[in-house]
Specification:
Elements (H helix, E strand, L loop, with lengths): L1 E6 L5 H14 L4 E5 L12 E2 L2 E2 L9 H12 L4 E6 L6 H6 L2 E6 L2 H10 L8 H15 L8 E5 L6 H9 L1
Parallel strand pairs: 1-5, 1-6, 2-5, 6-7
Antiparallel strand pairs: 3-4
């Protein structure tokens, strides 16, 4: 089974992926997570915005390699979880996914969580706004996507609802 998890930065995608991989492993399944962040092009090939690398562009992701790895590992694992900001952007990858989870948070929650995120050092306000706006433009799933469950990332995940959806 291939599961895609999408959502804006700091929405809880990795947390949900970790909860799911733990659930499946506890139930005797071979499960693995792939983070789209691990499939970015070299920095020199990524577009810039105001002299900053624009990680928030779908042009930063090597979707072909991402898709190849998913196909390869689908044969080796019972459950493959793919999470990322642009999880639903690439049509070819989307068609591979058996189940899709979209983690929603409000802009207010995003801003609060992003302000506490110091992994990348100082990020100017304009860039934080760019992250949100880029997600609105490229990261939100289209209404045409099938097998999609939206879940709130505001608080703890309703894992009963998520597992019921995945296992049906």
């Amino acid at each position: 089974m291939l599961i895609g998890i999408g959502g804006v930065s700091r929405s809880g995608k990795s947390t949900l992926a970790n909860l799911l991989v733990t659930y499946f492993r506890k139930n005797g399944k071979k499960a693995i997570i792939f983070h789209q962040d691990d499939f970015v092009f070299p920095e020199t090939q990524i577009p810039k915005i105001k002299n900053r690398t624009d990680w928030e562009s779908p042009h930063s992701i090597d979707f072909e390699l991402f898709k190849e790895v998913l196909i390869l590992f689908r044969e080796k694992f019972d459950v493959v979880i793919a999470e990322g900001l642009f999880a639903f952007h690439d049509t070819a990858t989307n068609e591979l996914l058996d189940k899709k989870l979209f983690v929603k948070i409000s802009k207010r929650t995003f801003l609060i969580r992003k302000s506490m995120d110091t992994r990348w050092g100082y990020e100017p306000t304009w860039f934080i706004d760019h992250i949100w706006n880029s997600f609105q433009k490229y990261g939100k799933p289209s209404t045409e996507i099938k097998n999609l469950l939206s879940v709130s990332g505001e608080d703890e995940f309703d894992m009963e609802k998520v597992i019921k959806y995945i296992c049906k």
